[in-house]
Design goal:
With 510 residues, the protein is an alpha/beta fold. The protein contains 16 helices and 25 strands. A nine-stranded mixed beta sheet has the order 2-1-10-9-11-12-13-14-15, with helices on both faces. The chain binds 5'-O-[(S)-[(2-aminobenzoyl)oxy](hydroxy)phosphoryl]adenosine.
């Protein structure tokens, strides 16, 4: 399907104002534990914030606004207001520190800041901070965003922006080097809504979305704000969720669609039987590879076939996935309608089925780094190279192997860490695990497993040997972990990804 949008387009007019104009203003749009905003109420909040930005702060279209806050309805309204006012949103992850915030402010040339008062300490320490307005608990003085909103008019007409004006600069979590800003247009925001959620997830106006990814991460921005608004559905925005409180919230709000990362589903599966999850119709996993062991555990616990999907900050959202009868355990799926994908060798030539190579994708969205020489590494001949090693099977399913840089080469064999992790996760003692390559004089690298045990198991040499035998008996024996290390927890990013470089450092220290 080709996506066509008019040349003048403000995405918030389509996501929000259109529903109110069509008489849907009384439908619920966003809620948290305390309140529920209808589409009309959300529009009012967004419009008041837009007036604060353009009037009180004096910003003009094209200015950049840094946003800092956990998932709350007010944070969501602030993001939408920035876009509606013709400004550019620069959302940032709550755990970022002063130095990282300073880098982003300088790189994105931020003109103003909207920040949750509870997260202001790290931000206030940034030298030369642009004008900032604070919101939420702790910002109850006369200059808070809420106070300024109360003085502002309740109606703001969406700024007349071009479909290809930048509206969002999203930063990658960047495990190495300076974080990269990725630029996205108003039409990109609608395009992601009109691909994965429309064709794969098949979002309905009656859906109630819930999940963990931050709105500052494009996985969360799409799944917990843009996708529901596109069809007039509702989202629950909650802060500080744990596997247990997410299950509670699903049951209490009767959510129908859940978005989170594989590690959350792994931890929720053993607890799921204690909650009434009968409202759930779809659960989406993204951020890192979904092991078959995790898919199986979740399906046994809930009866739900997980929708796996690979997306990236550069592509804005999910571009390969599968749902329903199209799901094939072990594969991510097929290109989402609107996207194309292929596998390339190291020289950039397409390879046939069954050969591992570099994943390349093309579609309505794509990578546009903000002034970064790495643009040419991600985009070649119009194809986006995501940095993932994939193979395609004879039926056109795309099978994830590892990050291109993470492939372990041991005694001449290529070994993908996630395959060994999947094998380990099938053992009853294993709660979480991460497998990396450890430099080795004899073999180049050896396979090293970091294992978190389930309660009631002890990290003894006998158990390590048992895990090694267990892997040898389920996948090719040369892939077994020659080193097994037990750990109380694994290092993960705020987006739920295993930090393999930190595992390598931890393993070196033992
Ligand atoms: C990895 C996956 C295997 C893969 C994201 C959904 O994760 C997101 O964006 P990031 O920029 O990272 C992108 C990289 O993460 N990855 C993501 N999903 C999967 N690997 N299976 C998956 N299902 O290496 C990719 O290149 O943080 C995910 C939607 C929006 C996003 N930004």
């Amino acid at each position: 399907p080709e996506l066509r949008y008019p040349p003048r387009l403000n995405c918030v007019a389509e996501l929000l104002d259109r529903h109110v104009a069509a008489g849907q203003g009384a439908r619920p749009a966003l809620c948290d534990e305390h309140e529920r905003w209808t589409y009309a109420q959300l529009q009012q909040q967004v419009d008041r914030i837009a007036h604060v930005l353009r009037g009180r702060l004096g910003l003009v279209p094209g200015n950049r606004v840094l946003l800092r806050g956990a998932n709350t309805p007010l944070m969501a309204a602030a993001i939408l207001a920035v876009l509606k006012a013709g400004l550019i949103a620069v959302p940032t992850m709550p755990l970022l520190r002063t130095r990282e915030l300073g880098t982003i402010i300088a790189k994105a040339q931020v003109d103003a800041v909207l920040c949750a008062a509870s997260l202001r300490a790290e931000l206030d320490a940034v030298p030369g901070l642009p004008p900032a307005v604070y919101f939420g608990p702790g910002a109850d003085d006369a200059s808070s965003l809420e106070a300024l909103m109360a003085q502002a008019p309740a109606a703001f007409e969406a700024c007349d922006t071009a479909a290809d004006d930048v509206c969002l600069i999203s930063f990658t979590s960047g495990t190495t080097g300076v974080p990269k800003g990725t630029m996205h247009f108003h039409r990109d925001v609608l395009a992601i809504c009109d691909c994965f959620p429309r064709h794969t997830l098949r979002t309905q106006p009656s859906d109630l979305f819930i999940g963990t990814p931050q709105l500052a991460f494009t996985f969360g921005l799409g799944g917990l704000l843009l996708f529901p608004l596109r069809v007039g559905a509702c989202a629950v925005l909650l802060e500080k969720l744990t596997p247990e409180t997410l299950l509670q919230a699903i049951a209490r709000h009767r959510a129908t669609v859940c978005f989170t990362a594989p590690t959350f589903y792994r931890q929720m599966a053993p607890l799921a039987a204690r909650y009434d999850l009968s409202s759930l119709r779809a659960t989406v996993s993204a951020g890192e590879a979904l092991p078959v062991a995790t898919r199986d555990a979740w399906q046994r616990a809930t009866g739900l076939a997980m929708i796996d999907g690979i997306g990236s900050t550069e592509m804005l959202h999910i571009f390969i996935s599968a749902a329903g009868a199209d799901i094939r355990p072990g594969a991510t799926g097929k290109p989402v309608p609107g996207y194309q994908a292929c596998i390339l060798d190291a020289q950039g030539k397409p390879v046939g089925p069954g050969v591992v190579g570099r994943l390349a994708v093309k579609g309505p969205t794509g990578c546009r780094y903000l002034a970064d020489p790495r643009q040419k590494d991600y985009v070649c001949d119009g194809w986006n190279l995501t940095g993932d090693a994939y193979e395609m099977d004879a039926d056109g399913y795309f099978i994830y192997r590892s990050r291109t840089d993470d492939m372990i080469i041991s005694a001449g064999y290529n070994i993908a860490g996630p395959e060994v992790e999947d094998a380990l996760l099938r053992h009853p003692a294993v709660a979480e695990c991460g497998v990396v390559g450890r430099d080795d004089e004899e073999r180049g690298q050896v396979v090293e497993a970091h294992v978190v045990l389930r309660p009631g198991f002890d990290g003894t040499p006998a158990l390590a040997a048992e895990l090694q035998e267990f892997v040898k008996s389920s996948i090719a024996p040369y892939k077994y972990p020659r080193r097994v290390l037990f750990a109380p927890a694994l290092p993960r990013t705020e987006t739920g990804k295993l930090q393999r470089f930190r595992l390598r450092d931890a393993g070196a220290a033992t």
